[in-house]
Design brief:
With 398 residues, the protein is an alpha/beta fold. It has 2 domains: 126 residues, NAD(P)-binding Rossmann-like Domain (Rossmann fold, 3-Layer(aba) Sandwich), CATH 3.40.50.720; 226 residues, Dihydrodipicolinate Reductase, domain 2 (2-Layer Sandwich). 37% of the residues lie in helices and 18% in strands. It is built from 15 helices and 14 strands. Strands 13-12-11-7-10-9-8-14 form an 8-stranded mixed β-sheet, with helices on one face. A 6-stranded parallel β-sheet has the order 3-2-1-4-5-6. A hairpin with a 4-residue loop joins strand 9 and strand 10. It is globular. This is Gfo/Idh/MocA family protein. Pfam families: GFO_IDH_MocA (PF01408), Glyco_hydro_109_C (PF21252).
Length: 398
């Protein structure tokens, strides 16, 4: 393929517009050839941005099939609603277009298998745009784990701790898909921000795999209380029961004995955090206070734990990931502190070279399936549920 990648962007809500404006249109050797959204006004707004940045107007449509039919387009970025990611990704692979899909959870195991089968049939790469795999802390800890600093990893934890009450409650006004999910589903609906970096650390699909999970949900009270306060007790939405529990806790067991705890926490008042924690036989890292604890170095601080808060800065020089060292030297760009830039840069680099993407379809299926499996486990009172092996045994040698 040529140096310049011609891309179609499908889905132009808040996330799609953000990626387009803050990242894609600022990248060299990337040309936005088409934009698409079900809502025509969003498509025209995106086309205005593209025309201003590129000097000419892209193809605009409300039908993604029309984007896929355009021969000049080499790659597709999907930032539409969760429920259509899979259908668009499969159609893109079948059209021979590299796929970069925004994150979300699966609605069924069948859709995960359909993704894998589409890739194995077409051999067209499909990448999940899990930007948190490119976070500075996440990559630094991965670097430390690979160097053996934390010893053998035993347990990891993380969460999507993000007060989304305003966003969800205004779903109708903002034409946002999250609201319907909170009304109708009760699950770990957004697992990949925390799970992606952990999967990298534990070698999931690359010598290890997740084998089972149990999931429990609290009652659902936070969002409804917020809606009553902000929209009034007599508003239609205030009278709508929410299925989604305020706190969902999921525990995953891995083939080599490690455990993972992930938490969904989006409808109660709180500060933002991904709760990224890694525990090994020689030490630990925890994002909650940005601290590292090394056996033999910090033992005397067992009870003076506040002295270690923020000590991660002292380890940057030695363990910062090479990708972030380069990113800082060149000037951090893009949204979410630079993570968006790095994940899309890797994707477009794969398109140019015609190589496999760094996060592949097997990762996408394994991480997304946690949503529907947690839904099953919660419905059965926390019953253990098996996690499929989407590699069909290849995880042992990949």
């Amino acid at each position: 393929m040529g140096e310049t990648v011609k891309v179609g962007v499908i889905g132009l809500g808040g996330r799609g517009m953000g990626l387009l404006d803050q990242v894609i249109l600022k990248m060299d050797q990337v040309e936005v050839a088409a934009v698409c959204d079900l809502y025509a006004d969003r498509g025209e707004q995106a086309a205005d941005l593209v025309e201003k940045a590129q000097g000419y107007r892209p193809f605009v449509t409300t039908q993604y099939a029309e984007v896929l039919a355009r021969a000049e387009i080499q790659a597709i970025v999907i930032s539409a609603s969760w429920a259509v990611h899979t259908d668009i990704a499969i159609a893109s692979m079948e059209a021979g277009k590299y796929v970069a899909s925004e994150v979300g959870g699966a609605y069924s195991i069948q859709e995960c298998w359909r993704l894998v089968e589409a890739y194995e049939r077409t051999k067209v790469p499909c990448m999940l745009l899990e930007n948190c795999c490119y976070g500075r802390e996440e990559l630094m800890v991965l670097n430390m784990v690979k160097q053996g600093v934390l010893g053998e990893i035993v347990h990891c934890a993380g969460g999507y701790h993000h007060d989304l009450r305003e966003e969800v409650a205004n779903g109708n006004e903002n034409r946002h898909y999250r609201l319907n999910n909170y009304i109708h589903r009760n699950c770990e609906n957004y697992p990949t921000h925390e799970l992606g970096p952990i999967a990298r650390i534990l070698g999931i699909n690359h010598g290890n795999r997740m084998v089972s999970l149990v999931s429990m949900a609290s009652k659902a009270k936070g969002l409804q209380e917020y809606i009553k306060r902000e929209k009034g007790e007599n508003s239609e939405l205030a009278k709508t029961d929410m299925m989604q529990g305020d706190i969902v806790t999921t525990i995953i067991k891995c083939a080599h004995g490690e455990t993972i705890t992930i938490t969904l926490d989006t409808t109660l008042p709180r500060y933002y955090s991904r709760g990224f924690t890694v525990r090994g036989t020689k030490g630990m890292y925890t994002e909650e206070n940005l601290s590292i604890y090394i056996d033999g170095t910090h033992d005397k601080h067992h009870f003076d734990w506040k002295d270690q808060w923020g000590n991660v800065e002292g380890y940057r020089g030695q363990y910062d990931h090479p990708l972030w060292k380069k990113h800082i030297e060149e000037g951090v760009k893009g949204g979410h502190g630079g993570m968006d830039w790095l994940v899309l840069a890797d994707f477009f680099d794969s398109v140019r070279k015609g190589t496999q993407t760094p996060i592949d379809v097997y990762d996408m299926a394994a991480w997304m399936c946690i949503s529907t499996l947690s839904e099953d486990s919660i419905a059965m009172g926390g019953h253990p549920v098996a996690i499929p092996d989407f590699t069909n045994g290849k995880w042992m040698n990949r």
